[in-house]
Amino acid sequence: MPERFLLQILRNLVAHGILESTRGVDGGYSLGRTAHDISLLDVIEAVDGPMNTTLPASKGLPSESKSKLEKVLKDIANLTRHQLEAVRLTHLLPRTG
What does the buried/exposed string (b/e) look like for 27-49 if buried means 16 or more CB atoms within 10 Å of the residue's CB? Predict the structure, then answer.
């Protein structure tokens, strides 16, 4: 992975308050909030932008079918957002002690 690409990801995470950047010899990156306060949705949206919940091109579909498809896809997107919001970084870390 190119270094420039990784640096852009780190900048996005800093801009969204997920990471803090410290300059200098002993510098680096650390969490900007507690691991419990950072959701998987926070990380995904910081890196990729807001989750897209728009309907893909559906040319040729009757309006009733299009309406039903839009509802199903919107429901799926909302469930996905809810599940990602529920997963905290603490859930992904190994248990200690």
Answer: eeeeeeeeeeebbbbbbebbeee
